[in-house]
Amino acid sequence: MAAPSVVVIGAGQAGSDTAAALRSQGFGGRITLVGAEGVPPYQRPPLSKQFLAGARSVADLALRPASFHTERDIEFVGRDPAVRLDRNGNRVTLASGRTLGYQHLVLAVGARARRLPVPGARLDGVLTLRTLTDAGRLRDRMRDTGRLLVIGGGFVGLEVAATARAAGLAVTVVEFGPRLLARAVSGAMSAHLLAEHRAHGVRVLLSREVTALHGDGAGRVCEAELDGGERIAADLVVVGIGALPDVGLAAEAGLAVGDGILVDGHLRTSDPAVYAIGDCARFPSPHTGRPLRLESVQNASDQARCVAAALCGTPRPYAALPWFWTEQYGLRLQIAGIGTGHDRVVTLGDPGAGRFSLLCFRGNRLLATESVNRPADHMITRRLMGAGAPLPTPREAAAPGFGFKAFQEAAAV
Amino acid sequence: MAKITYRHPNGTETVVDVPVPNTVMRGAKINNIDGIEAQCGGSAQCGTCHVYIDEANALPLPAMHESEDDVLYGTAAPRRATSRLSCQLPVSEEIDGLVVHLPETQS
Fold first, then answer.
1. What is the pLDDT of residues A221-260, one digit of tens each?
2. Which class would CATH give B2-101?
């Protein structure tokens, strides 16, 4: 009998970590890692920060050293995306025409940047940021640009705005919703970030929509038109309005998809030989009691290890605690848990001094801790939530002198 | 260049020469050493590059910054007096011969 084989489609954080975790957990069969891009797996978070600022090179971004795949006997196939999945024949066809047989398939195909659905969105100088190629292009363009327009006040948009502002560009952010990072943080944290961006000289417009982009006659963007008719001059536009999970391959193969490839608590798709993880997967979360799709390093990495464990014969349901971070102007925001649906917030520390945490509760239950330059609050929340240990109630957290360090010590976790 | 020993929880060890400049975390990453995750890429945020400095070590390591100390409150493996974040330990000739112990788990 042939050695068991795993094919991993997608060579981002989730796919690369799956291949690595399979080997470190003792998997002895064949592993093939298939990527659409021509470069080995790289870190994505620095693309909008240090890489964009020119402080880190392509070589610094590599997730693993060049020797990794040969040393671990992993076949890495670059620049050859999967185009067809034949589940009856247990075969994947790549763009080159090559076919790969598998016993287990892991879809780590990620998500692609949403395009702006307005006239002019295809003009030269209108960019999205998702890949290393995107980031390189944006970095080059930022060098000869004075006025940047960022469409979308999410993580990518705000990080690009902060990096560009630090590089001296005039920056405007237009957000369709009434507040920044609305899907990820509390209203109070949105307000803090808004004040921070404005204090650094970024013009932020909320509840406003870009209805068209106009070119300069040579096909290059020069102006944006907003609802209400206002026009904003810009020679570079970054569209950061979210990402769409890459469900095409899965849907064509008849797998269940929604906003993402649907998986069970063990990250299996509707076909038990096929798993889906990372940005493309919608999974049931024990932390929220409803299906989630998360775009984060933590989620990609933890799901990779979970799938690897299953393929190595030690399956366990996926239960890792979600956490996120962003850095803007040296402000380090870390989020532990999912705060959606919170109904009260307790503040620790001093927002005015730029060091504080917002504890988001629903009733007596702590859903998430949002920390600005207070890493201990973040780390202890992660540890306690991850261990299922008792958490502070709003009354305890609001008591004078409350601190997470003392709380953790008393809990002896 | 400095020789650094990464001792695994099962007692085996990997000894590598790490070029300067680097951190003890990067030294593990560029040499394919399992047991250091460094999910945040080395910015002292995630606590997944936790190591224990060998007790016999008498090499001049930099003092711990407050944020490193804070992050060490939440490591997956127990914090000890010898705990450090390896991303906050720059490699230099002065720490040639450093021995670090990798924890059982990082996340």
1. 999 999 999 999 999 999 999 999 999 999 999 999 999 9
2. alpha beta
Beta-carbon separation of B71 and A64 below 8 A: no
pLDDT of A1 over the 60 cut: no
Mapping DSSP to helix (H, G, I), strand (E, B) and coil, where does residue A187 land?
Answer: helix
Confidence of residue A411 (pLDDT cuts 50, 70, 90): confident
Q: Shortest CA distance to A358 belongs to which of A340, A341, A378? A: A378
Asked whether residue A138 falls in the same domain as residue A235, the answer is yes
Question: Is A324 inside a domain boundary?
Answer: no
pLDDT of residue A413 exceeding 70: no
Does A3 score more than 90 pLDDT? no
CB-count burial class (<10 Å; 0-12, 13-18, 19+) for A103: middle
ipTM above 0.90, yes or no: yes
pLDDT for position B57:
84
Claim to verify: residue A226 and residue A247 sit in the same structural domain:
no
Cβ contact A259:A274 at 8 Å:
no
Decide if B15 touches A, using CB distance below 8 A. Answer: no
Taken in order A169, A170, A175, A181, is the CA torsion positive or negative?
A: positive
> How far is it, in rounded angstroms, from Cα A372 to Cα A325?
10
Boundary of a domain, candidates A261, A286, A312: A312
Is a pLDDT exceeding 90 seen at residue A412? no
Tens of pLDDT, residues A34-51: 999 999 999 999 999 999
Contact A298 B31 (CB under 8 A): no
Which of the listed residues A254, A286, A312 is the one where a domain comes to its end?
A312
The boundaries of the domain holding residue A380 are 330-411
Closest CB from B31, B41, B75 relative to A43: B41
**Min Cα separation B60/chain A (Å):** 26
Measure CB to CB from residue A405 to each of B31, B47, B73 and give the nearest one. B73
Are A58 and A129 in a shared domain?
no
Structural contact between residues A33 and A73, judged by C-beta atoms closer than 8 angstroms: no
A163 vs A412: which has the higher pLDDT: A163
The nearest alpha carbon in chain B to A65 belongs to B30
The residue type of B61 is L
Phi, psi of A124 (to 5 degrees): -60, 135
Q: What is the CATH number of the domain that holds A42?
A: 3.50.50.60
How close A412 gets to chain B, by Cα (Å)? 11
Same domain, residue pair A128 and A219: yes
- The mean predicted confidence, pLDDT, of chain A is 96
Average pLDDT over residues B61-77: 94
Helix (H, G, I), strand (E, B) or coil at A404: helix
Residues A229 and A280 in one domain: no
Nearest to B89 by CA among B100, B74, B104, B103: B100
Whether A141 is in a domain gets the answer: yes
